[in-house]
Amino acid sequence: MKTTSVWIIDFGSQYTQLITRRFRELGVTSEIITLEEGLARFKTAKPRALVLSGGPQSVFEDKTDYSPFLTADIPILGICYGMQIMGQFFGGKVEKGVIGEYGLAKIHLCNGFKINGVVGDTDVWMSHSDHVSVLPKDFTLIFESSNKLVAGIKHTSKPIMGLQFHPEVAHSVKGKEILEYFIKDVAKLESDWTSQSVLEDCLEQVRQVKGSKVLCAFSGGVDSLVAAVLAQKILGDDLYCFFVDHGLLRPQDLHHIEVLKEKTNLHIEILDVKNEFLSRLEGVKDPEQKRKIIGTTFIEVFEKKLNEYQDQKGIHFEYLLQGTLYPDVIESLSPHKVGGKSVTIKSHHNVGGLPERMKLKLLEPLRFLFKDDVRMMGTEMGLDHDWVYRHPFPGPGIGVRVLGELSADSIRKVQESDQILFEELKAHNLYDSTWQAFTVLLPVKTVGVKGDGRVYEEVIALRMVNSQDGMTASVTELPWSFLNRVSSRICNEIKGVTRVVYDITSKPPGTIEWE
Fold first, then answer.
1. Longest C-alpha distance within the chain, in Å?
2. What is the DSSP letter of 115?
């Protein structure tokens, strides 16, 4: 990575990586670092600008001395918690909120302040309870929320600006314009990043292992597909892709793999290990435990395959290629792992270290990219639209779409209902209208009527959301006739299901997956 012009101090916000993304889109390089690392670096170097991110903590419990940052002669942007730090440090007042502002909110410009493209009431994404109630000295109110709370402040003479909302989140509709104002008008930064450098950075990571044998954990999703095609450009026949059939797949998944085997140059081997996964998951109800079992078993399957190739074919693998993305990384980080203050949301089976007994090193060329970055890269490499825009599917598969304990019957219900949803989205030309769509089996039964008789059967939930990167999401508004058709088919065609509900929860507060 080239020398970065902006340091982003991560206080644990689930959106911190999105700041990097927005700065990239605006042509500026940035780097996310922990508070401890930032304070240490500040003793010998200074960035061209500094961003203080949001975070889950409160300034009332924070005893950190931020004077090295806030007294330095550099542009500073404080976001959410970062603005509260600034407000308190410069003599303003921060109060605990009686009620918080979460999700979509409206703000408006104040005191004659102007930003190109921002007019009238503007929708932004809020996630806070504490708030700045009294402005610090020499600061001007530039944004106010519809609740009459301080939403943005700016120093009258220094290049310092604070925002209570999250401009980096896609749901802040003018967030990009507001960040551009900080970059160009406040910090006066020049462009030093291009989209071509992203592809080159990814290729350079693969070049560093050229000549090595690489095993790819291949799911067929856009992430692993782009990672594999990218790697094969340099590794050629030294790349081996292994697709794990763990018994928690949908009919469309296996069909997709057969298509890729036929239409790409990738060497894909299907590993049928259904019994091994399902036997280990028997009786397990806790979602985090299910994820960990699936993740551990994945690694053991690859370890077994590694040993098989070594013993029987004399092929020694050195690296494990994975399509890990930024959202996977941020949701899996814990404070003790990175020295930061983030909170673990859920673990991801494809994130983290490998057992010491395995001599494979991780190769994750997409680790600092987002889903739409990867899709753009896939399109540029000439991959089919249907492959590149295939909906995300979690590594644990149906294992986290059956709430509670898994059984052959519960897996069947999700497989069949998900297939119906997939078929109807395609039939109604709605597949590309939603970012992700799937079904979930709920651990409850409800009374219904079938054939003039009473039944007591289970419930399927439909989950369809729109998102750019998986960090935030809103419910997809689909035609009522479509939802009726899907509900009717599921209740009529799937034995043991008598009710369908539609999940209309955004992320946050919910996650996209139910488990």
1. 79
2. B
Q: What is the CATH number of the domain that holds 108?
A: 3.40.50.880
Q: How many CB atoms lie within 10 A of CB 281?
A: 24
Tell me what pLDDT residue 332 has.
54
Active-site residue, from 101, 168, 364, 424: 168
Q: How many contiguous H segments (helices) and E segments (strands) does the chain have?
A: 16, 20
Look at the block and give the residue holding tokens 């899907």. Answer: 486
What is the extent of the structural domain holding 491?
401-503
Q: Which residue did the predictor score with more confidence, 472 or 184? A: 184
Cβ distance 456 to 434 under 8 Å? no
The answer on 425 and 383 residing in a single domain is: no
DSSP annotation of 397 reads: G
> CB 266: neighbour CB atoms within 10 A?
17
| pLDDT, tens only, 117-176 | 998 899 998 988 889 999 999 999 999 998 889 999 999 999 999 999 999 998 899 999
In a shared domain, residues 47 and 173: yes
Q: End of a domain among 186, 206, 237?
A: 186
Number of domains forming the structure of the chain: 3
Which position among 80, 202, 216, 241 bears the catalytic label?
80
Q: Where among 186, 214, 237 does a domain terminate? A: 186
Report the candidate in 381, 369, 370, 351 with the shortest Cα–Cα distance to residue 226: 381
User: Distance between CA atoms of 144 and 426, rounded to whole angstroms?
Assistant: 44
Same-domain status, 332 and 417: no
Which regions of 357-399 does DSSP assign to beta strands (E)? 361-363
Q: How far apart are CA 326 and CA 348, in angstroms?
A: 12
> Which residues face 107 on adjacent strands?
122, 145
Q: How many CA atoms lie within 13 A of 349 on its CB side?
A: 25
* Residue 327 pLDDT grade (very low, low, confident, very high; cuts 50, 70, 90): low
Which token pair is 11?
Answer: 């206080």
Task: Count CA atoms within 13 Å of residue 471 on its CB side.
Answer: 25
Task: Kindly state the tokens that stand for 31.
Answer: 């780097």
Q: Is 110 a catalytic residue?
A: no
Span 418-427, average pLDDT: 98
Does 320 share its domain with 370?
yes
Do residue 97 and residue 140 come from a single domain? Answer: yes
Structural domain includes residue 394: no
> Is residue 108 included in any domain, yes or no?
yes
Could you say which of 166, 171, 256, 348 is catalytic?
166
Catalytic annotation present for 80: yes
* Pair (213, 269) in one structural domain: yes
In a domain, 396, yes or no: no
